[in-house]
Amino acid sequence: MIPFCLRLAGILLALVLSLSGAHADTVLGGYLSKISAADLVPGAEGFGPERADLAVAPVLKGGQTIGWAFVTSDFVGTTGYSGKPIHTMVAVDDSAHVIGLQLLKHSEPIVLIGIPDAKIKALAAAYIGLDLVAEAQSGGTAHDVDIISGATVTVMVIDDSIVRSGLKVARALGLGGLKAEAADIGPKLEIDPEAKAPADWSAMEGDGTLRRLSLDVGQVNAAFATLDDPRAAERALTEAPATPFIEMQAALVSVPGIGRALLGEQDYTNLAGWLQPGDSALLLAGRGIYSFKGSGYVRGGIFDRIVLIQDDVSVRFRDKMHRRIVALGAEGAPDMTEMDLFRIPAETGFDPTRPFRVQLLVQREVGPIEKVFTTFDLGYQLPQTYLKAQPVAPQPEAATTIATQDEGAAQADLWKKIWRGSQTEIVVLAVMLFVLTAMFFFQSWATRRARAFLWFRMGFLTVTLVFLGFYANAQLSVVNLMALFGALVSGFSWQAFLLDPLTFILWFAVAAALLFWGRGAYCGWLCPFGALQELTNRIARALHVPQWTLPWGLHERLWPLKYMIFLGLFGVSLMSIEQAEHLAEVEPFKTAIILKFVRAWPFVAYAAALLIAGLFVERFYCRYLCPLGAALAIPARMRMFDWLKRYKECGNPCQSCANHCPVQAIHPTGEINPNECVNCLHCQVLYQSETTCPVVIKRLKRRASVGTAPAPLGAPPAGHPNATRHEPSI
Predict the structure, then answer these.
(1) Dihedral sign, CA of 591, 595, 596, 599?
(2) In 177-278, where does DSSP find H-type helix?
(3) What per-residue confidence (pLDDT) applies to 415?
(4) Which pLDDT value is given to residue 659?
(5) Which residue has the higher pLDDT, 211 or 185?
(6) How far is it, in rounded angstroms, from Cα 106 to Cα 300?
(7) How many angstroms separate the CA atoms of 684 and 444, rounded?
(8) In 3D, which of 46, 52, 50 has the Cα closest to residue 66?
(9) What is the pTM of this model?
(10) Going by C-beta distance under 8 Å and a sequence separation of 6 or more, which residues neighbour residue 525?
(11) CB–CB of 182/398 below 8 Å?
């Protein structure tokens, strides 16, 4: 029986490998057996085998090929807000028209659950019929982008990936008459490093070194009035039509002559050190009532108002590709309110010797949450004075296959750039961790004065909430642990976890803290949602909201709930990580911290209900529902030290600490449950309290009656004006 079972297992394993192993190195290969062809293209009956030379598979109907299916992330980078790829499957026919589209997988917080599924389906349906030939002729702008309010950047990334990957596939397969780009034959243009630019600003405008887009309010109003939206046509800006809306200047400062003239020698040297071989750099300077940068990049890291377009190459700039400059070095340069450098990586395929344009997105609100959009182009072509011809040997024929980028090397380079661009945030987090570590090591001294410790704790939690939570979105989640386990099973890679420096540092610090102090170092001090609960409860106490203490028997039966939730999520993740991520919405972190309550009402109502419960029962969610706290409590049993001091009288007969513990982590018998303790150190304040702790009070009375020994714990001598001071409890 056993040999038969082993043979059967071997057959099944071989079958699985034969079905999925042929193209395990492509995203498409992993989805062909999971996606129904009819769901992608109505009426289709199945997929043919994936091609060996290109990550595409035929879409079949009646035994005939009616189109070609591919996944965008096999051809272009599709990273959105989350920093993770967005996988979209697209089908195109022989005329280079899109005949099917399906969003497969993404980790975008706003799209994952915050946007109704009907809007996502409508977004996908809008691309059916997209003409890639027209897109190739227009540089990817022959269609209107159906922007979903609240997800502008995500939708633009998806749109950009569909168009660019579609053009690559169409060219490679020769669809719609498009052909793979052949290598140039004959003279090839390159940048002349010896060419010099005019020293005067107006002269640079005259010869095309600088190119300008200038719009007034009247022009913008006229553009919106042409839209098929009567509300946009009716609404006018409050300024007069002649009021300057935006003046935007552009120049390729990676060209040595232009860079030195516009930036000055020192700033150009710094720019050259910032750029990698093959990179280009674009200067954008602007003024007026409209910003070409906006503020979305602060939260999401992507400049959603501008995009560089050159043929079928489009480049969206991220915060790691951006630097501000303080002043322009050219003579007669006007005063600009925005002056910024944008790096164009070599791997984008951008050619600085060929024409390109910068597309400016202008948006206007037409309702409480609805916006309409239009675009304006700033065209740029490097003047011939900065170019020189270099003869190249003719190539025998154009390559028709698409090279696959070395994702490992690209990702390794990416995380290093992200860390360099996050130096300020990393330093702030490092200071927070240093202060917290010092406080734990010297906790007896830190908790000696109750009022000072109270203000320190409230201040630290405020920084945790505002900086780590609302600003940096560094909220750890049980989803991170499930992803880590999945990576360990499927093939661990450090690079994937290094892409988010603050989260990586926090997890490293949590792992170290588990050995020293247990889960409380994170849960009690570094969790933004935990900080939000405690701060709101502190406000409730100040407003005299009644505080409820659950009976010990009920409390003891409720805290295992979070362990059950965690084990349930972990079990589901073994079968489907996607389903586990959906169920992990039991964590209100995404709604309250990441999206700041800008979400569908059921999620907001759930998060608000937990916070309201926390007004009456301090840290209600932490105590009974948090799967992350449960996950951290399990390895915390291995902690090496027990830092919290106790008297032998604690629990018998004294119950002061047990009655005052904010999360009821102290048993009536006096023991502290490390699985439930959040290391708030309130018990250590009481341990030294001269007004609350019976052991300390008794010791003081004994010494006072003897009159020989000085008062302990830094108390003033008898007769001192402050000898009878009362330290408030927290």
Answers:
(1) negative
(2) 201-207, 217-225, 230-234, 256-263, 265-274
(3) 63
(4) 83
(5) 211
(6) 15
(7) 7
(8) 46
(9) 0.50
(10) 436, 460, 461, 464, 679
(11) yes
